Amino acid sequence: MKIGFMQFSPLLGDALGTMKAIERLLSGCAGVDLLVLPELCNSGYNFTSYEQAWDTSEAIEGGPFIAFLESKCSSHNMHIVSGLNERDGDVLYNSAVLIGPNGYIGTYRKLHLFLNERDFFQPGNAGLPVFDIGSCTLGMLVCFDWIFPEVWRILALKGAEIICHPSNLVLPGFAQRAIPIHALFNRVYVVTANRIGTEEELTFTGVSIIADPRGDILAQASRAKEEVVVREIHIALARDKMMTPRNHVLNDRRPQEYALLTENAIVKR
Ligand code: ACM
User: Fold this and answer.
1) How does DSSP classify residue 144?
2) Is 257 a catalytic residue?
3) Cα 60 to the chain's mean position, in Å?
4) Domains along the chain with CATH numbers
5) Phi, psi for residue 220 in degrees, rounded to 5
6) 106: which of 68, 136, 196, 244 is 20 to 30 A away, CA to CA?
């Protein structure tokens, strides 16, 4: 199975221009099974007003960016996970969508909003779904979700073998350090597709990553260049949860000692 990321710079408020860039970068993607794109691909990230966030959003049903991705997945016989500024009724979500050769499959809505995202988006209300696409079972997280180990573990417990992670990272290199560790802890593949470029005061950090279930980095992009990077993976490695012949990373947990994890505890120190 071939999986990869597209690292590029979605254009703030110019979905058509972004689609042209994706189309150009897809030309080198023959034979890719699963490609991950950055967060908020249809809109850009650093909105200056709620109106701008609203005007650049789209509904899953009938949305032009979704239709574009559907046509590309069909013509390339591939799956794509992409960040989407999603409109649902009168609410916006910072979502990731999964599209396949036969069209739209499913959505994850970002649970952990970062900084000013709270001014535009509602926290996700669609849980942590996983999707069996035939060649693998995958889950999705979006950007700042990276710092919450709970969601990575939940996806692994639900059977995700690949976690697709559209991102617009701005903090200096922290997520890129954490991603291989999440992959190792859960013995899953992770594809973090980060964006590049700047929007006003924000500079996005690139260095998109493919990490394997051993925590090895199979691919790491540059800091600021457009790149599509693809790697051949062996999904059986993500199905083997044994760290030693007698240690299964999921079944050896002691959840009776973890109750605090599901409480809304205010930790003072
Ligand atoms: C982020 O969550 N976009 C940093």
Assistant:
1) G
2) no
3) 17
4) 2-262 (3.60.110.10)
5) -145, 125
6) 196
3-class secondary structure, 126: coil
Total Cβ atoms within 10 A of residue 245: 6
For residue 221, CA distances in Å to 3, 94, 233 come to 14, 24, 17
Q: Which residue has the tokens 């991102």?
A: 167
Write the CA distances from 172 to 116, 166, 177, integer angstroms.
18, 17, 10
Q: Which residues contact ligand 1 via a Cβ below 6 A?
A: 39, 114, 143-144, 168-170
The dihedrals phi and psi of 152, each to the nearest 5 degrees, come to -65, -45
Q: Supply the pLDDT for residue 230.
A: 97
Taking the chain (269 residues) in runs of 10, the rounded mean pLDDT of each run is 98 98 93 97 98 98 97 97 98 98 98 98 98 98 98 98 98 97 98 98 98 98 97 98 98 96 78
DSSP letters for 81-95: EEEEEEEETTEEEEE
Instruction: Please name the residue whose Cα sits nearest to atom 2 of ligand 1.
Output: 144
User: What pLDDT does 257 receive?
Assistant: 97
Would you say how long the chain is, in residues? 269
- CA–CA gap between residue 168 and residue 166 (Å, rounded): 7
**Among 194, 191, 190, 151, which residue's Cα sits nearest to residue 172?**
194
Ligand 1 atom closest to the Cα of residue 171 is 4
Q: Which residues contact 41 (CB under 8 A, 6 or more apart)?
A: 10, 18, 22, 65, 82, 83, 84, 166
Q: What is the dihedral of CA 6, 64, 96, 101, to 10 degrees?
A: -70
Ligand 1 centroid to residue 247 C-alpha, Å: 34
pTM over 0.85: yes
Give the separation between CA 190 and CA 178, rounded to whole angstroms.
11
